[in-house]
Amino acid sequence: MTIMSSTSLSSGLDSVTNKSYLLHFLQLLSTCMAFFLVTRESTWSVDISNWSMFVWCFCFTVTLLTLIAELCGLQDKLHFSWDRFLITSACYCALFCLSAAIIYPIIHLQIFPDGSPRHHVIAATAFSCIASVAYAVEVVWTCARTGEPSCSLLGLLKRLEIFVACVIFAFLSNTYPSERQPALVWCVAVYCICFILGAVAMLRHRCDCDESLPYSCLGFGQSVLAVLLYTTALVLWPLYQFNGDFGGQPQRSNELSCIDELTSYLCVWDQRLVVAILTAVNLLIYVADLVILTVIFLRCLFQRIKVQSSDSDPQDHHILLLTILRPGLSDHHGLLPPLPEAALHLRGLLPGGQSGHLDGGPK
User: Fold this and answer.
1) Largest CA distance in the chain
2) Which end of the chain is more exposed for a tag (fewer CB within 10 A), N or C?
3) Which stretches of 112-212 are DSSP H helices?
4) Phi/psi at 202 (nearest 5 deg)?
């Protein structure tokens, strides 16, 4: 029986490993072919298309390093969840390749109306789509296989926030004005601050967006700050970019870069408009994130109060709530009555099933 169980487990692991290798090879082939087709005919002429080149190189490098780590068995020696890393990296790569498959043909199918360069643009776009699908399949398959908490809607929103910020940075490289207006400098600072906070939060929690109370408190504060900051950016960016009274350019036809034949399909004015639209999109994502975190926070808070206070007296409920919200509270002066056992267990001062009291209370 033991031998049969070991054989079955080994066979299952081999099947999972083979599927993982197959997806990685497909991702490597797709991103490599997209990059090769673009560089062979030099079918990129606009600065914004550098985003597509970066995406394919980045995804290829990350996938290659992941495959090498799996072939060498290094994932077992790392101090974080390998499945969680696979989900996070594949999710970002899927979004990146999808954005490249949208942005790249919009520009270059207009620049190259016919001939071999146009065929290379179509082929590169197709391979970028294939790569995006391959990464998406890896995300779904890994989530279904492992059931990681990072597969939740909250985890997806956190990744979308960072992804949209990355796309904003790509468009900002060509739209940032030379006069350095303070309002526009503030908008760029908003994008950077929210991106850094989101990235640090993801790394700090090892890409885990669970629904625990401590993370909900931290995520709630970050979401409130991001909503406030992005609201100011959503007002200031269009005002100073498209309003003539504030030095903006309200008419696309008056923008010099829109007259150039090679850049007229996505000129600087268009890119500024894209930044404004993406700012609104990211604000909506942050609002949805804030709503979900609010629901999670209140649900966890009241559920714990209800469960942990089920055996306590009604007069101790205010003490229990104070204990939850102020975990550093102590009674060195003996001014508070002894806390119920449920509150002590909630604060983590006692292991489950034991009883005790705060310092200074009766023992």
Assistant:
1) 88
2) N
3) 116-146, 153-175, 182-204
4) -65, -45
